[in-house]
Amino acid sequence: MLTLKEREIKRAVKEGYARIAKQATSDYASRCCSGDADIPEELSKRMGYTDEEIQAAPPESNLGLGCGNPVALALLSEGETVLDMGSGAGFDCFLASDRVGPSGKVIGVDITSEMVEKARANSRKGGYANIDFRQGDLENMPVADNYVDVVISNCVINLIPNKRMAFREAFRVLKPGGRLAVSDVVLLKELPEFVKSSTEAYIGCLAGAIMKDDYLDIIKSIGFRDVRVVAESRFPVESLISERSGCSTPKDPAITPEQQKKVADSVLSIKISAIKP
Fold first, then answer.
1. How far, in Å, CA of 229 to CA of 142, rounded?
2. What's CA 21's distance to the chain center, in Å?
3. Distance between CA 48 and CA 81 in Å, rounded?
4. Cα-only R_g, the chain
5. Element (H, E) at 267
6. Can you give the pTM of this predicted structure?
7. Predicted local distance difference test score (pLDDT) of residue 43
8. Nearest to 104 by CA among 131, 125, 136, 85
9. For 43-100, what is each residue's pLDDT tens digit?
10. Among 54, 110, 132, 267, which residue's Cβ finds the most Cβ atoms within 10 Å?
11. In contact, 151 and 179? CB cutoff 8 Å
């Protein structure tokens, strides 16, 4: 059961991403009109997506969120069933859909109804027949036990106060032998208190991040095997709190430029794979 503080954080994150979803359509229209439509695309390239992948998904599904490319990490095959934890407007789901083909299936779960509605609209526009977007908590997902071949997630688990519950759910829904492929933000050293106590920084994928070793220990303790750090790199703090990245509140930055310098060396983008035995 979540504590009062954890429930408050979840509510703040949900409200923050609801605002992002509502702004996304008007922001996309304004970028197109102003010739500035490449902002999410450029952010996505920095995260590891190719030009071909960016062009393959519906444009309005790419909000410039995330910190990696879990679809590439997952090495998906034709006919597999994939679950995206924290699917947002559906960008990674649409890429996964192409990889698993008509005989495969993709399920996107997101806590925010506005994001789910946006993802469903993108799916209808693109004519995707093998994707099912569902609203639900990642700590209690509306997905059957031992149902999916692969679980992916992109810079979302850090937003969840009780990460152990989220990874336990990932373990539950995976078939034996199923794969976990996660891109996320972790820490090399503890963040200053002014970041930890910032709701804006939490929505910005920063204040909820935990130490790298603690993150890996949680995955291992749930029962996953062959837990591997496939890649890691410094991730610019300004990308996490940029208004244009969509990973912050729309009006105010999470922390000042001066404070950014104090935390820049703490943040790491990490790509992890694991197996459910």
1. 28
2. 14
3. 23
4. 17
5. strand 267-275
6. 0.85
7. 78
8. 131
9. 788 888 999 999 999 989 998 888 899 999 999 999 999 999 999 999 999 999 999 9
10. 110
11. yes
